[in-house]
TrEMBL record:
GO molecular function, one term: pyridoxal phosphate binding
Keywords recorded for this protein, A-Z: Aminotransferase, Pyridoxal phosphate, Transferase
Pfam families tied to this protein: Aminotran_3
Protein name: Aminotransferase
The keyword Flavoprotein is assigned to this record: no
Stored InterPro entries: Aminotrans_3, Aminotrans_3_PPA_site, PyrdxlP-dep_Trfase, PyrdxlP-dep_Trfase_major, PyrdxlP-dep_Trfase_small
Membership in a protein family: Belongs to the class-III pyridoxal-phosphate-dependent aminotransferase family.
Length: 442
């Protein structure tokens, strides 16, 4: 059994493998024999998942785990409406977008109706990574420059171009001279009166650096909840001055909505709306099809026109009818089950409960987030406390509650459940978390 040489928050490292059941050990051995070492398992004791339903995952012994982490099955694991529409479409036809098919047009009209009117064109991909890759190509072609800015611990994907703006992939992940990293706001510690302007000043400095390198400035890509930067959510509108700085310099603002999008933040469909901004390009992925691969790039007609006129872009499986059926089902469920209302209600309960817990445990350095995308930060004095975050995540796993840790110093719990997560589910998570902090030694 091998250990991972590259640390990842909450990763299985093999040190406890002898404590696992023989069948689990055997499955791990078989996995390591065939899957490349770039793969990572979660948790000190990995979970063997056999099935899922709603907000629950089940192991081979039918033990159920409360899923407070997976944003991909946005409307819940194995949702029957998603199953039905996908199965029906599989029995009809599944082909590419070079034929004239009505479902992709119907869905596009419906999707774009959820955006500001200026964002009126969409291109489909299979993944968020592909959508990021395409967004960078469009921005660079539109501006004639190569330079891009991203936050210092961002994650935007796994293609070569997307990985180059994903410093959270680790110190050995290549970041070229056409990318400048800027420190994200620390919404727990920065002065709220100056935080937005300070961030914009860092963006302006990065623009100048890119121009000094001779690569020019094409644009900036930001995850609208800054998930990998430790979940930086408030105050709302703190991104607006940075957007102005980008536009004043002739650049393109790319909003990465793969994680915050589709109502996860509760009050709005898209994270950028909380900041009162209108991006030039918007990237979608993961929860869009509830696990069926589909992503998209939504953009302003003016930004998309030149690239579309001059360069062929074709993605064989992007926007195929089966994936569009899954995406249609997701919108149906969000609307018919009033999930945005549920996100606000459950998110409020979670946030209040987390703040109450924080007030009783001095190891908690802050609580933040919006809707069902929340974070709890652990500290030891003035230092980040990744060890406590890891212990909490693994102890909750033993209690059959699944979350993870994130952030530049890996000391931030990331709570990001499927959208049907109710106040009752929130209460269970809060009760177990409080008990862990009382009883698990630091």
């Amino acid at each position: 059994m091998t250990s991972n040489s590259l640390h990842m928050a909450n990763a299985f490292d093999g040190s406890d493998v002898g404590l696992l059941d023989e069948d689990v050990q055997d499955l791990i051995r078989r996995r390591e024999a065939v899957l490349a070492p770039s793969y990572r398992l979660f948790y000190r004791h990995p979970v063997v998942v056999a099935r899922g339903s709603g907000v629950w995952l089940y192991d081979a012994d039918d033990n159920r785990y409360l899923d407070a982490y997976n944003n991909v099955p946005a409307v819940g694991h194995s949702h029957p409406h998603v199953q039905r529409l996908v199965t029906e479409q599989l029995g009809v036809v599944n082909t590419h977008t070079r034929y004239l098919t009505e479902p992709v047009i119907d869905y596009s009209e419906r999707l774009l109706g959820l955006f500001p009117p200026a964002l009126n064109k969409v291109v489909y991909t299979c993944t968020g990574s592909e959508a990021v890759d395409l967004a960078l190509r469009v921005a660079r072609y539109e501006t004639g420059a190569r330079g891009v800015i991203c936050t210092a611990h961002a994650y935007h994907g796994t293609t070569t171009a997307a990985a180059a703006v994903s410093p959270s992939l680790g110190p050995n992940n290549f970041i070229g001279d056409d990318v400048v990293l800027v420190t994200a706001p620390d919404t727990e510690r920065d002065d709220p009166a100056t935080m937005a302007d300070d961030f914009a000043a860092r963006v302006r400095s990065a623009i100048a650096e890119l121009r000094g390198r001779g690569v020019g400035f094409a644009g900036m890509i930001v995850d609208s909840i800054m998930s990998s930067d430790g979940v930086q959510s408030d105050p709302q509108r703190f991104l607006a001055p940075a957007v102005r700085a980008v536009h004043e310099a002739g650049g393109v603002w790319i909003a990465d909505e793969v994680q915050p999008g589709f109502g996860r933040l509760g009050s709005t469909w898209w994270g950028f709306q909380r900041h009162g901004i209108e991006p030039d390009l918007v990237v979608l992925g993961k929860p869009m099809g509830n696990g069926i691969p589909i992503g998209a790039l939504v953009g302003r007609d003016g930004v998309m026109t030149k690239f579309g006129r001059d360069i062929r872009y074709f993605n064989t499986f992007g926007g195929n009818p089966v994936s569009i059926a899954a995406a249609t089902a997701v919108l149906d469920v969000i609307e018919e089950e009033a999930l945005l209302d549920n996100v606000q209600r459950s998110g409020r309960r979670l946030l209040e409960g987390l703040r109450d817990i924080a007030g009783r445990h001095d190891c908690v350095g802050g609580v933040r987030g919006s809707g069902l995308f929340l974070a709890m930060e652990f500290i030891d004095g003035d230092d980040a406390d990744a060890d406590t975050a890891t212990r909490v995540v693994n102890e909750l796993r033993e209690r059959r509650i699944l979350i993870s840790a994130s952030g530049p110093r890996e000391n931030v719990l990331k709570i990001r459940p499927p959208l049907p997560f109710t106040t009752e589910h929130a209460d269970r998570l809060l009760g177990e978390l409080d008990d862990v902090l009382v009883n698990v030694p630091r």
